[in-house]
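thought: user wants a sequence for this fold. calling inverse folding tool.
action: design(structure=
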């Protein structure tokens, strides 16, 4: 801005000198005429500049006014990828309840995180990102926000105006109750993050998990059953092809923490020698399954000997998501990739020591707590994550978790995996007959139907609603009023990604996919995901998607072309 002002001044004086030179050449030594002409020119330039400024202000006001119909929400967040994912879950649920058109700007403390986090929220078109602005005065000037919230474990209200209260009574109530909580438990928010220990103790006593802390007033209804999200970029699937992982079985592990932590050593990390021993035991038990090591930087992650593929520092966040998505399980400490794997609808073996498994652990994971200490110690001291509170060179909480204990957990996951075959149950169904086909095959009100990215999904879902109670639609382009519309119609609506659908394995009786224009490679991964959520014996209906037999061959299917193709998933016991 200062540079622009200097340039404008310089140009003005250059033009003034040119004018004086021209007038002297024209009027010689007649100073009166020269001054009169300069006066007229200065007067004209002044009003020209003034007119430009007024026009600019009017345009800016018009632009601002044109956006006034949208409520502007600013949310300041901090932490690593795992924290941002959990905050994002709260933001997603918050957006559903607002009840008016809105935009959300999420800002982070570290400017490097902005580019890293955009991929996580790519399916939310109403969310934008910026570097963190601490004061609400600065936010009001730069972002013209109507409400400012900070998410640091809990949701902390910082600022709101009357416009927010008028446009969204629900958000006004959420703001008021959150503020009341923060006043009542003010000690949680003083001297942050050191006082997180008080919030953690309160959460454990009251049965509140980490994923629920941002919903301290329980108005969002977040729990472990809340639909998660994490979009996978189709371009990132190329990494699976290039690493020859498309048809491979593999697990992933990590030996470090996120790159913004800035340390190689942490009491949250399992010992490298334990990792090396586990790799040896796992290869002996499962020689056909690869082990892939992930990590942000070789300066922050210890390389483990014996892994099949070391990708430390060689992948983008999008590529990490694609690799994690298709791993059999992920092995890690209490770190961000565990949360990513969970948001990708997968399982992890998580090793807890300095943090609480009761607070941070997910029920679908195998959570192992070390026996070297009687309690977790997060934020008991400022350097709890750098060195052992009891003075040991190796934190006994993590050192006491043996490779054999982790190997036992690995057996439980690997041995519980199922293999499926797929077969065609019907072909060439007319689109108009899709509802009749489903009603005829599943005449049960409790049947679970998932409709993924169907352009005509509302009409079809409403027709099916007459016969079935549980219908979930997944969309990328949800409008602010779509969720209330779905609720009024007795339907469920979620944001989604075709490569990562937020539903559990074997959870749907019927899955419908219509009108896709994806490439051959993309269809292959989409089919894998659709079959993942389909129950054994369930029906997958596909219409308007180009598929040849090369795509279907890995699933043991053949394409008979035309109209809707229906497939079923059958279990083959391993």
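)
observation: tool returned 574 residues.
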């Amino acid at each position: 801005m200062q540079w622009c002002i200097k340039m404008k001044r310089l140009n003005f004086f250059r033009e003034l000198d040119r004018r004086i030179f021209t007038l002297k050449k024209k009027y010689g030594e007649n100073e009166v005429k020269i001054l009169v002409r300069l006066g007229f020119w200065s007067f004209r330039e002044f009003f020209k500049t003034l007119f430009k400024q007024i026009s600019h202000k009017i345009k800016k006001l018009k632009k601002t006014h044109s956006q006034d119909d949208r409520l502007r929400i600013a949310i300041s967040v901090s932490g690593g990828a795992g924290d941002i994912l959990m905050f994002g879950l709260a933001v997603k649920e918050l957006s559903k309840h607002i009840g008016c058109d809105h935009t959300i700007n999420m800002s982070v403390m570290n400017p490097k995180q902005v580019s890293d986090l955009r991929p996580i929220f790519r399916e939310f078109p109403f969310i934008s990102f910026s570097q963190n602005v601490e004061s609400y005065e600065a936010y009001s000037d730069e972002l013209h926000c109507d409400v400012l919230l900070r998410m640091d474990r809990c949701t902390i209200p910082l600022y709101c105006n009357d416009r927010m209260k008028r446009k969204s009574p629900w958000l006004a109530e959420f703001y008021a109750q959150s503020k009341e909580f923060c006043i009542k438990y003010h000690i949680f928010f003083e001297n942050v993050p050191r006082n997180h220990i008080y919030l953690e103790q309160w959460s454990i006593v009251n049965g509140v998990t980490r994923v629920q802390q941002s919903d301290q007033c329980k108005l969002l209804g977040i729990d472990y059953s809340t639909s998660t999200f994490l979009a996978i970029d189709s371009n990132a699937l190329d990494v699976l092809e290039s690493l020859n992982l498309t048809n491979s079985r593999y697990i992933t592990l990590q030996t470090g923490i996120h790159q913004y932590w800035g340390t190689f050593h942490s009491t949250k990390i399992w010992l490298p020698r334990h990792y090396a021993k586990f790799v040896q035991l796992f290869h002996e038990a499962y020689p056909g399954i690869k082990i892939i090591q992930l990590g942000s930087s070789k300066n922050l992650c210890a390389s483990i000997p014996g892994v099949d593929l070391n990708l430390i520092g060689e992948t983008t966040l999008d590529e990490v998501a694609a690799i994690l998505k298709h791993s059999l399980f992920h092995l890690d400490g209490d770190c961000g990739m565990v949360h990513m794997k969970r948001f990708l609808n997968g399982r992890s073996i998580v090793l807890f020591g300095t943090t609480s498994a009761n607070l941070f652990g997910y029920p679908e994971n195998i959570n192992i707590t070390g026996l070297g200490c009687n309690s977790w110690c997060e934020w008991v001291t400022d350097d709890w994550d750098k060195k052992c509170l009891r003075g040991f060179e190796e934190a006994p909480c993590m050192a006491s978790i043996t490779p054999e204990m982790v190997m036992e957990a690995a057996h439980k996951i690997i041995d519980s995996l199922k293999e499926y075959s797929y077969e065609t149950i019907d072909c060439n169904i007319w689109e108009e007959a899709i509802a009749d086909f489903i009603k005829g095959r599943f005449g049960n009100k409790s049947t679970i139907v998932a409709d993924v990215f169907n352009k005509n999904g509302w009409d079809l879902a409403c027709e099916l609603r007459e016969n079935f109670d549980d219908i979930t639609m997944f969309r990328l382009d949800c409008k602010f009023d779509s969720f209330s519309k779905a609720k009024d119609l007795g339907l469920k609506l979620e944001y989604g990604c075709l490569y990562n659908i937020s539903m559990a394995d074997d959870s749907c009786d019927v899955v419908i996919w219509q009108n896709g224009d994806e490439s051959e490679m993309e269809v292959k991964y989409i089919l894998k995901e659709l079959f993942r959520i389909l129950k054994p014996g369930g029906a997958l209906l596909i219409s308007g998607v180009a598929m040849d037999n090369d795509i279907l061959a890995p699933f043991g299917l053949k394409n008979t072309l035309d109209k809707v193709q229906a497939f079923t998933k059958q279990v083959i016991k391993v």
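thought: summarizing for user.
answer: Here is the designed sequence. The chain has four domains: 2-66, 71-215, 238-416, 419-572.
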